[in-house]
Known about the structure:
By secondary structure, the chain is of the alpha/beta class. Helices cover about 45% and strands about 15% of the residues. It has helices at about 30-40, 55-65, 80-95, 115-140, 165-180, 200-205, 210-220, 230-240, 265-275; strands at about 20-25, 45-50, 70-75, 100, 150, 190-195, 250-255. It has a seven-stranded parallel sheet with strand order 3-2-1-4-5-6-7, sandwiched between helices. The structure holds coenzyme A. Coenzyme A binds near residues 108 and 202.
Amino acid sequence: MTLTPGQPESTFRPDLLAGKHALITGGGSGINLGIAQSFAAHGCRVSILGRNLDKAQRAAQGIADAGGQAIGLSADVRDVAALEAALSQSVAHFGGYDIVLAGAAGNFPAPVDGISPNGFKTVVDIDLLGTYNTIKVAAPHLSSPGGNILSISAYGIPVPMQAHVVAAKAGVDALTRTLAVEWGLRGIRVNAIIPGPIDGTEGMSRLAPNEQTRARLRATVPLGRFGLPQDIANAALFLVSDAASYITGVILPVDGGHNMLGAAPQYQMYLKMIEEKQ
Ligand code: COA
């Protein structure tokens, strides 16, 4: 099976995840779709879950057209009953899970005084509680030993206009580390990835909408380029594979070194965005 058109050949064995089943929330687009495609290209059956059924099914169809095995499911990760119904459908179709990828997230750039209490709560509900709900509902179906949980997190540093996201994702990190300890003896590994600026994603188009902001942002990445969805997928493949069998509780930045510079180099850019919003 080929990877996404235009992506480089995988460095991993094509049967790396043969016989496995992964649940991927938020898998209809962006980084999570890249992970779903890559897992499928390495032999994994994937259940793609999103709020929008059409989008999830289109993503699954794309994988099936490329020779992989996938189904699309619909649920809002804030709705435990809807998650339970979707996951029973997925387990009935492909069996229990070997991998749970909690990728669903909601985000918009807004300064603290430009967002309502309900706006803040909405992002915490999707990003933190949605991650917890996903893991909680999937856990009884997750193989043990041998199961893997992987969440998509964000920088644990102050990022202006992202207080709601940074606060929610700090909770995801705490959940990741705590579950890694609680479930270590069950043989379940629990890790997270922090994506840096990934080209072609919705987040990137909002953060850097024109060439000028793109150039400024690119200058804050030590490796001198934006990431590709495949960069995140490669890290995900490694973390859920046996090559990482002694790794748990890790929050791994995959960002070209961007985190080492913190938000400081972008500070003026953020100030300008806040000014424009007011
Ligand atoms: N700035 C400030 N507040 C915002 C906002 C923005 N850009 N977008 C939404 N909100 C607030 C709303 O005003 C509302 O608060 P209120 O009731 O006090 O007015 C609250 O957030 C909920 O908004 P709503 O649109 O009803 O929520 P939703 O559950 O339908 O969707 C998101 C929430 C985050 C998913 C939605 O903003 C969205 O679709 N974002 C883009 C998609 C996305 O996040 N993709 C992931 C990229 S990482």
